[in-house]
Give the backbone structure.
Amino acid sequence: MFVVLFHEHITANPKYWWIILEFVDYARSHPGVAFATIDEFAELARHGQRFTAF
């Protein structure tokens, strides 16, 4: 699991969105990478399920 937190001064300002989009494209280029909210991850862990790539 790799948690990425974006501060509001970045996500609220469109001039910085390229950073987020570039990171997502980079991450997606690697096999086995999946995206989930922290709530989705916690729900899987709560039920003893492993989080696997989609």
Remarks:
- Helices lie at 8-11, 17-28, 38-46.
